[in-house]
C-alpha cells in the first residue's frame, strides 16, 4: 500500500478553532482520491459550516444522532462499518474526555464507540488544557483503549499563547493514517537508511558531489516507518522535509556519513544504503577560495571509504544488508558483482540512463538481485519501489517466501 487512494475515511470534526484546518485536510484526502464522509459535532458547527465539508468531500455531512432519514437512522453504527479508518481532527479536550470514559452522547462519540476500525485522534487545544493532569490521564486511557493519538505540535496558539497544543501538521497525520492502514511487518526492527548525495569540499565555495535528490531514500524511510520500524535516516544535503517520526541525522561528506553509519551499524537489524556516496574526495580542502589563473586546474583526488563494503565486513549474524547500484550498462553483471563483493543480501540496481528512472524524478524502474533471484520491477513511484524492497527484505526473514 502506498497512498490513501481508494481508502474510505470517516472524518470527525469537533469544536476547536483549528476546525478550519480540517477543511483543508478533507480537500487533501479528496485530491488523493480517498472517499470521505464527515461528521460535525454541534460545537464544530460554531466554527465551520456543514456546507464547507459537503462541498469539499462531495458527500452530505452527518450531524444529528436522531436524523430520521431512512439512510441515516443507524448512522452511528453504519458509518464506521463502511470505512477503513476513523479520524477526529481537531479533537477537543472535551471529546477526548468523553472518549476516555466511553461516553456516546452525540453522533461522533457514538460512532467511535461502535467502530471496529482504527481510530486516529488529532488533539488541538490551549497549552494549559493540553498539559492539565486530567487531559494527561485521559490520553493515557485512550492509548490503553487502542486509539492512535497524533501528538500536537508546539508553537503559537490561536489564544495568543505559545506552547504545546497546536493541531499536528497534515504530513504527520497522513503518515499516521497510512501506518494504521498498513501491516506492521517491520515492527520492532531497527533500520538504518542512507539517502542523498555527499559533498566533498574543494575550497570554501566549491565541492564535488553526485546527482541525487534523496527521494528514494526518503521514500524507504517513510514506508519502513509505516510498516512499524524504528528508522534512522542518515541524510546527505537534500531539499526534502524530514519525514515525521524518523530520526534524521544530517551529514555532508562521505567521511561524516561513514562515521554516522558505522558508529550505529552494530545496533541495527537492517541497513539500506541508498545514498550516492562520492567515491573520491580532493586530497585536501583549500582554506581560501581557489582563484583562476591563465591555466586549467588539476585536482588530486583520493578514494573515500566504501561504507557499504565496510558494513559487509562488519555485519553480524541475522543483520540484513541492502545496497544500491547506479549503473549505465551491464546492470545484471554489475549488480551480481557488487552483491558478492560487498557481502549483501540484496542489491537494488538503478538504470541511471532511463528518462523516468534514477535521478530527480518521481518514478523508478529497478532490478532486485539476491543470491536467490533477479527480479525486474515495472516502472513504479519511488514509494511503490520502496514497498517492493521491504517486501523482499521481509521475505528474507521468512525464507519459505524467498523464491516468490
Ligand atoms: N557506496 C558506499 N560508499 C562509497 C561508495 C558507494 O557505501 N564510497 C555504496 C552506495 O551507497 C551504494 C553502493 O555502494 O549502496 C553502490 O554504489 P555505486 O556508486 O553504484 O557503486 P560503487 O561501489 O561505488 O562502484 P562503481 O562506482 O565503480 O560502479
Describe this structure in words.
This protein has 404 residues and is α/β, with parallel strands linked by helices. The chain folds into 2 domains: 8-181, Flavin prenyltransferase-like (Rossmann fold, 3-Layer(aba) Sandwich); 190-281 and 301-401, Rossmann fold, CATH 3.40.50. The protein is built from 13 helices and 21 strands. Strands 12-11-8-13-16-17-19-20 form an 8-stranded mixed beta sheet, with helices on both faces. The chain has a 5-stranded parallel beta sheet with strand order 2-1-3-4-5, sandwiched between helices. Strands 6-7 form a two-stranded antiparallel sheet. A hairpin with a 5-residue loop joins β9 (199-201) and β10 (207-209). It is elongated. The two termini are 19 Å apart. Residues 254, 273, 275, 277, 279, 304, 306-308, 323-326, 338 line the site of cytidine-5'-triphosphate.
List keywords for this structure.
404 residues; alpha/beta; Rossmann fold; 2 domains; eight-stranded mixed sheet; five-stranded parallel sheet; 21 strands; elongated; binds cytidine-5'-triphosphate
Amino acid at each position: 500500500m502506498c497512498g490513501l487512494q481508494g481508502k474510505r475515511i470517516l472524518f470527525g470534526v469537533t469544536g476547536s478553532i483549528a476546525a478550519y484546518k480540517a477543511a483543508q485536510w478533507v480537500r487533501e484526502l479528496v485530491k488523493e482520491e480517498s472517499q470521505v464522509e464527515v461528521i460535525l459535532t454541534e460545537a464544530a458547527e460554531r466554527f465551520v459550516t456543514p456546507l464547507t465539508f459537503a462541498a469539499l468531500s462531495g458527500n452530505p455531512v452527518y450531524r444529528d444522532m436522531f436524523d430520521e432519514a431512512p439512510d441515516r437512522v443507524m448512522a452511528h453504527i453504519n458509518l464506521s462499518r463502511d470505512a477503513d479508518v476513523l479520524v477526529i481532527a481537531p479533537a477537543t479536550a472535551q471529546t477526548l474526555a468523553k472518549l476516555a470514559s466511553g461516553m456516546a452522547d452525540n453522533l461522533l462519540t457514538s460512532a467511535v464507540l461502535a467502530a471496529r476500525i482504527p481510530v486516529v485522534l488529532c488533539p488541538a487545544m490551549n497549552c494549559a488544557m493540553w498539559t492539565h493532569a486530567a487531559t494527561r490521564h485521559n490520553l493515557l486511557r485512550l492509548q490503553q483503549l487502542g486509539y492512535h493519538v497524533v501528538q500536537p505540535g508546539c508553537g503559537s496558539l490561536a489564544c495568543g499563547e505559545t506552547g504545546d497544543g497546536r493541531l499536528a501538521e497534515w504530513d504527520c497525520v497522513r503518515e499516521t493514517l497510512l501506518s494504521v492502514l498498513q501491516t506492521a511487518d517491520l515492527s520492532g526492527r531497527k533500520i538504518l537508511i542512507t539517502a542523498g548525495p555527499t559533498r566533498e569540499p574543494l575550497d570554501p565555495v566549491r565541492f564535488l558531489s553526485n546527482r541525487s535528490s534523496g527521494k528514494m531514500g526518503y521514500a524507504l524511510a517513510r514506508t519502513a516507518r509505516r510498516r512499524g520500524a524504528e528508522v534512522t535516516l542518515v541524510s546527505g544535503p537534500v531539499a526534502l522535509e524530514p519525514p515525521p517520526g524518523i530520526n534524521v541525522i544530517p551529514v555532508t561528506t562521505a567521511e561524516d556519513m561513514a562515521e554516522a553509519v558505522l558508529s550505529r551499524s552494530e545496533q541495527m537489524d537492517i541497513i539500506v544504503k541508498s545514498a550516492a556516496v562520492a567515491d573520491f574526495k580532493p586530497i585536501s580542502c583549500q582554506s581560501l577560495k581557489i582563484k583562476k589563473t591563465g591555466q586549467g586546474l588539476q585536482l588530486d583526488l583520493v578514494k573515500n571509504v566504501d561504507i557499504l563494503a565496510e558494513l559487509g565486513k562488519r555485519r553480524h549474524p541475522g543483520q540484513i544488508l541492502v545496497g544500491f547500484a547506479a549503473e549505465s550498462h551491464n546492470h545484471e553483471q554489475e549488480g551480481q558483482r557488487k552483491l558478492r563483493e560487498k557481502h549483501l543480501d540484496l542489491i537494488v540496481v538503478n538504470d541511471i540512463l532511463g528518462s523516468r528512472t534514477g535521478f530527480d524524478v518521481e518514478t523508478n524502474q529497478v532490478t532486485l538481485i539476491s543470491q536467490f533471484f533477479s527480479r525486474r520491477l515495472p516502472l513504479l513511484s519511488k514509494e511503490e519501489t520502496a514497498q517492493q524492497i521491504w517486501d523482499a527484505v521481509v521475505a528474507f526473514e521468512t525464507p519459505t517466501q524467498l523464491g516468490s
